[in-house]
Design brief:
The chain has about 500 residues and is α+β, with helices and mostly antiparallel strands. Helix content is about 55%, strand content about 10%.
């Protein structure tokens, strides 16, 4: 008759099979199936398919000509979405390219955003490790002396114990996907911070470009003003000489002097504004400005390219801030699974396998094998509503994430719509202002002729010259605003976010 098999042997034989079965059961997840919310915006941008008369860039010199590209940059197709056009290919002004590159290297805000990505990646690694058992080498030894009055033999006793082996710390069997849901949430939070860092990069590029354009606008306006100051100073010299000879009245001299003083006041104001703008650009770039000397007038068509608007649905995959909001929504959705799993029993395992002996030299002798296996189960019964409140909290946060996601899409839709309408109407405004400047120049010429022939007072010339300078200044401002609208459109469409797409952390092993 065979000897009965001990319970220990049965446990040892069945443990591997049971462990494999429990691991297979760990694929269950109680998280709701994720469904992307419907697009909360119209299918087309306002005015799409109904452009203003002429090209969107009408009014810019050479707008019908393609902008020159750097020699080492491939020319993008007119149908390339903004997200696939890297900023080096979109902004073709060499000085602006250098400023953007310097800003990306030096920006402390961008550096902090990238460090937050590293932080989120580390947190994901920590959370993901909870899905696997933690195994380590364990070794310990102890000696103890028991006094005679505490020993049944009435003699003092010294005992020793030595152990060595592999041990598994407390490991939760993920029956209901709680640990997996927490790992998924950590991954989505990591991807969210990565997309947020990309959004910060795009925002910095747009800020540098817009600040640079504003600085160049002020340079051009300042050059116009300085030319006007020099011209009016010469007119004042001539009129003062004519007054000294009695050819004109003091009123005419005073009016010419007034024109000169007004131009000087405008010049000093522009100098102050220009200095403040240069300081702001230096702060963005993080280094002293190194702009090449050249004509102050900006060559509008050589700064950047034109862009197709695409469709609102493109924003879902192109805008980094929308991607970040969706990853936060997915993280909130995964947390619901973890909260649901808290209502169900949890099983944890602890065990060790090795050798044990009362003598150090017998630690690895035959028959010294030792092991222990300690599964435990925890079934929650009463917690005064804590788990239900935790589930309610995760569901409320999921709903809040949905609202934030939809709001982000609506804000992105408005950004693109505003940029498109600005590009359209500012182009027409530039045309109107060019015609206005030409008309004001002719008015000034005719007013001067009338005054020279004694047909009108100098006040008419004064008004004409003042209006001409104002129109010239407004034209420069509007040309810059048109260029800024194109910068805004590039940023609003998620410019460059897919230009250097590489396998991201979303493909990481879970």
């Amino acid at each position: 008759m065979k000897a009965p098999v001990s319970a220990a042997k049965i446990t040892a034989r069945l443990a591997p099979a049971a462990l494999a079965l429990l691991l297979a059961a760990g694929c269950v997840s109680l998280a709701p199936d994720y469904q992307r919310p419907a697009l909360p915006v119209p299918a087309e941008y306002p005015g799409a398919g109904h452009p203003a008369a002429g090209d969107p860039g009408a009014g810019l010199p050479g707008a019908d000509q393609p902008a020159p590209a750097p020699a080492d940059a491939p020319s993008p197709s007119p149908q390339d979405p903004a997200a696939r056009i890297a900023w080096q290919r979109y902004f073709t002004d060499p000085a602006l390219q250098r400023l953007i590159a310097t800003a990306l290297d030096n920006s402390r805000d961008l550096r902090a955003a990238l460090l937050r990505v590293e932080e989120a990646r580390a947190l994901y690694g920590i959370q993901r490790s909870d899905q696997f058992p933690s195994v380590g080498v364990q070794a310990q030894g102890s000696r103890a002396r028991v006094p005679a009055d505490l020993n049944l033999t009435g003699q003092p006793q010294i005992s020793s114990q030595y152990q060595a082996g592999l041990g598994m710390a407390t490991w939760e069997l993920d029956f209901w996907g709680r640990v997996r849901s927490l790992s998924d949430a950590a991954l989505e939070n990591y991807l969210s911070t990565e997309a947020a860092a990309q959004a910060a990069t795009l925002s910095l590029i747009a800020q540098v470009a817009d600040s640079y354009l504003t600085l160049r606008e002020l340079d051009e306006r300042l050059e116009l003003t300085q030319e006007t100051i020099a011209s009016r100073a010469e007119s004042l010299r001539i009129f003062r000489r004519r007054f000294e000879e009695g050819a004109i009245s003091k009123l005419d001299l005073t009016q010419v002097d007034t024109l000169w003083q007004q131009a000087k006041a405008l010049g000093t104001e522009l100098e102050r504004t220009r200095a403040a703008q240069a300081h702001a650009l230096e702060l963005l770039v993080g280094a002293p400005l190194d702009l090449p000397a050249g004509p102050a007038r900006l060559n509008d068509e050589a700064v950047m390219r034109e862009l197709p608007a695409g469709l609102p649905s493109d924003l879902l995959t192109n805008r980094p801030d929308i991607l970040a909001a969706e990853h936060r929504l997915k993280a909130a959705n995964a947390n619901i699974g973890a909260a649901r799993a808290a209502f169900l029993p949890s099983i944890t395992l602890t065990g060790a396998f090795g050798t044990a002996s009362a003598e150090l030299d017998g630690l690895f002798a035959g028959g010294s094998r030792a092991w222990n296996f300690a599964p435990s189960i925890n079934l929650p019964i009463f917690d005064a509503g804590r788990r239900q409140s935790s589930l309610d909290l995760t569901e409320a946060r999921r709903d809040l994430a949905v609202a934030n996601y939809e709001q982000t899409i609506q804000s992105a839709f408005r950004d693109v719509s505003d940029a498109l309408s600005s590009r359209r109407w500012l182009a027409e405004q530039v045309d109107v202002l060019r015609a206005t400047v030409a008309a004001q120049a002719e008015r000034t010429r005719l007013a001067q002729l009338r005054y020279d022939h004694g047909a009108s007072p100098y006040l008419e010339v004064l008004d004409a010259k003042r209006d001409l300078l104002a129109a010239q200044q407004q034209l420069v401002e509007t040309r810059r605003a048109l260029l800024s609208s194109r910068v805004g459109l590039y940023a609003a469409l998620g410019g460059g976010s897919l230009a250097a797409a590489t396998p991201g952390p979303g493909t990481a092993q879970r």
